Amino acid sequence: MTGSHRWGHPHVEMEGVNKWFGALHVLRDVTLQVGRGERIVICGPSGSGKSTLIRCINRLEAAYSGRIVVDGVEITSDRKTIDHIRRDVGMVFQQFNLFPHLTVVENCTLAPVRVKRMTRTAARDLALHYLGRVRIGDQADKYPAQLSGGQQQRAAIARALCMNPKIMLFDEPTSALDPEAVKEVLDTIVALADEGMTMLCVTHEMGFARQLADRMIFIDGGRILEDSEPEAFFDTPSHERTRAFLSQIL
Amino acid sequence: MTPDSNRAPRVPMFRDRTDAIATIAVGIVLACVAYSFARWAVVHAVWHLPADAGSAPCRAVKGEGACWAVVVENVRFMLFGSYPRAEQWRPIVVCLLFVSLYGASLVRALWTRWLLALWIADSAVAVVLLRGGRLGLSEVPTEFWGGLPLTFLLSTAGFTLALPFAVLLALGRRSGLPAIRTLCVGYIEVVRGVPVITFLFMAAVMFPLFTPASVSIDKLLRAQIAFVMVMAAYVAEVIRSGLQAVPRGQYEAAASIGLPFWPAMILVVLPQALRVSIPALVNTFIALFKDTSLVIVIGLFDLLGTAKAVLVDGRWVGFGVEVYLFAASVYFVFCYIVSRFSLRLEQELRRAAGAA
Amino acid sequence: MIRTIRWQLAVASVVVAIAAAIAAQTAVNLRARGIASGFDFLSRPAGFEIARGLLSFSSRDTYTRALLVGLVNTVRVSLLGIVIATSLGLLVGIARLSEIWIVSTVARTYVEVTRNTPLLLQLLFWYTLTQGLPAAPEALNPLPGVYLCFRGLFLPAPIWRHGFPWIGLERPALVGFGFQGGTSVSPEFAALVIGLSIYTAAFIGETVRGGIMAVGRGQAEAAVAVGLSRLHALRFVVLPQALRVVIPPATNQFLNLFKNSSLAVAIGYPDLMSITNTTLNQTGQAIEAIALAMVVYLAVSLSLAAGMSLYNGSVLRRGGGA
């Protein structure tokens, strides 16, 4: 489906992407273009391939066929290219995946120090800045196990931000949280969106989606069935499966 | 480890430069090694010796080619020890008996009380068959037993006899009574803290001192007792983990329906504990199977012992590599097959538990 | 359980009764065979030689000293074995998880073959290989001053010299059918260390592999998602967490190596078990000798177990984990 070209050259391009898990055809001929600064929310039933789709962008999953181009660089199996792309693409996981043996601030400074060769003090300042932005600055020297779920996920967001990514991927960031924590994390993400970062977010939270998205994408059975602006998406979805899905969750 | 690799339709060999370089480098090294080995083991090897040539043809190629003739000429001795040739059908039957026992035990469908009885019966039948002296079979004293039947017998009988003691030790270790618990803990820790061969030495030199001079216990029996003592401690630890894995609710449920301690144990708790421990028990059995090779230090001739004994003969001195490779393959084939089955068992049990 | 004192007394008295009966019979037998009791034999001269090692020993030294030499040898072999086995095991564990098919297959073959054959057989195999080396006059000479023959590996050794430069290198020299001078590694020692290391490394490798797999994909994914290279991800995120899981079973393997070093008795290396064996053969005092050896091995096992509980306690108290 076509994406909007309002924002210049596409930041992320996927063309004819296919992926199998064993015999299961998870992504079928996916073609997608994401403009700079666009905020895209991807939704769909479980098993539809939405997580796999965004995981292909930072090569946590490898596509079998098709092209994926991130910020002008095509993803291949060359390790240097992959590492290079991952420096500019940040990801927030459903299970947070904070490093339990490091403190929160150490979680954030690990990559800047080791990959960007920042000095420890500079990295720490950067980390404390972002930890403050997500409002857990006072938890900086605690271990992840000592934080609540919502705090841990916000720490994970700060960790991703410390690498100054150009694109942020969110893989169901609130699915593992209880309701109070969901709101605090979603608010954090919305606040970030105002910075103009390109975002792709997989989520079930439709209220949040309406607030954040420039574009809504519905994927089912590995195919993108719907790709439109939020009002059109929610009020007049063109595909019947989209309608069925929306009626179930709204 | 990292998710770069996915289960592709084929095995990916060259996904990037490092892969390619590593694969080619290792491949070249392996090819060279395989080539030299093939030349030694196959191309220049001597497989048969003419009737009265002694071992000269083998000596002629020593260093260049393997002397598989040493295995071919001595295979009966290595497998069955000094058992009288005419009666060697008996150890063969014994070996088949044990192999089918192990095979049957690895099939989940056959796990019943009868299997347990079969384990006991097989060892008893093996002893009777090997010893003879009744049922019209000629008597063969244990000094002549050796090779594979000995390995099978020591492991199987050792494991079977150790199991009840292991259960008692495991229960005793969890007991609330300090005297019993201390005794059990003490026994287990001492046995597991010392090398196994100290027990074999005990069997060889100390046990004779414990019994009246008129009573002399067969050396093989002494070694068997030593193995049972050692196995009881190791298996007890496995069973203890199994007991811990049984949820507390089971004990409580059994008590609530009025089952007294021992019936509750035997009917409710132990079956579950044993079922959970099966993979670990199989691994312990494999370890015991390998450890029976230690009897060589007290002068008994299991599979390794007979192999080593072949090298004492002047004709075959110096061909240790061939002989040990043969013995190693026999052990390997057996242990590998059993451990693969055990892995599959573990997966089945995990799946069954997950579904429950 | 049956909570009565009576049961405990009953069990205790049965055990004591059996023990007493055995003790009584043993005393009778010992007297009949004219075997002495007690540990006096320890201060008698040993009357046998021990191959040259770290401590000097002659046949006039006491049994105590002989056993001490054995203990020192056991410790030497075990420490060296543990170091080599750990390094090799770490590599093997990581190699098992490599995405390069050939590397993981080679590692897997090594682990399967080593774990499914008896250790004693492997030791005898390595020893046989050393005995296949040529005799001293035709010894292999890969480097100047280094000679490899079936009697062992002979290396140059540093010695004091008069005058400048005060330290020199003494090279082994061929004398008859042996070498004199320099230092040497006996084939028994080499076979024991190589065999023990290779065997134990396979088990340690599997432990390391289990530890790495226990860390969970999410950690590795998060590490690379934030831009760390795979090597950095392994070093800073996966391995530190894996180590916590790995250390208790790895310590168990170290203990096994230490106990397995007793197999030296089968290839003739004079470790604690070998010398205990010689001692009990010469003095006939089997009970004392074996009991002594058992106490030594037990002391090491229990100290290691105690150290392990302390370590586990401290790890659990620290903030990390989960």
Short account of what is shown:
With 250 residues, chain A is α/β, with parallel strands linked by helices.
Describe it.
- Chain A has helices at 50-57, 79-88, 104-114, 120-133, 149-161, 179-193, 206-212, 230-235, 240-249, and strands at 10-21, 24-35, 39-43, 65-70, 73-74, 89-92, 167-171, 198-202, 215-220, 223-228.
- With 250 residues, chain A is of the alpha/beta class.
- Chain A has a single domain, classed as P-loop containing nucleotide triphosphate hydrolases (Rossmann fold).
- Chain A has a 6-stranded mixed sheet with strand order 6-7-8-3-9-10, sandwiched between helices. Chain A has a 4-stranded antiparallel sheet with strand order 2-1-4-5, with helices on one face.
- In chain A, β9 and β10 (223-228) form a beta hairpin.
- In chain A, α3 runs parallel beside α5.
- The longest helix of chain A has 15 residues, at 179-193.
- Residues 1-5 of chain A have low confidence and may be disordered.
- Chain B is mainly alpha-helical and 356 residues long.
- Chain B has a single domain (85-355), classed as MetI-like (MetI-like fold, Orthogonal Bundle), CATH 1.10.3720.10.
- Chain B is built from 13 helices and no strands.
- Chain B is globular, with a radius of gyration of 25 Å.
- Residues 1-12 of chain B have low confidence and may be disordered.
- Chain C has 322 residues and is α+β, with helices and mostly antiparallel strands.
- Chain C has a domain at 63-119 and 199-317: MetI-like fold (Orthogonal Bundle), CATH 1.10.3720.
- Chain C contains 10 helices and 8 strands.
- At the B-C interface, α1, α7, α8, α11 and α13 of B face α1, α3, α4, α6 and α7 of C.
What tags apply to this protein structure?
heterotrimer; A: 250 residues; alpha/beta; Rossmann fold; 6-stranded mixed β-sheet; 4-stranded antiparallel β-sheet; 10 strands; 25% strand; globular; disordered N terminus; C: 322 residues; alpha+beta; MetI-like fold; two-stranded antiparallel sheet; 8 strands; 64% helix
User: Count of helices of chain A?
Assistant: 9
Structural class of chain A: alpha/beta
Let me know the number of strands of chain B: 0
The number of distinct structural domains of chain A comes to 1
Major sheet of chain A: size, sense and barrel closure? 6 strands, mixed
**Number of self-contained structural domains of chain B:** 1
Based on CA inertia axes, which overall geometry of chain A fits?
globular
Which CATH architecture of chain A is right?
3-Layer(aba) Sandwich
- Strand fraction band of chain B? under 5%
- N-to-C CA distance of chain A: 25 Å
- Main pleated-sheet profile of chain B: none
Order of helices and strands of chain A: EEEHEEHEHHHEHEHEEHH
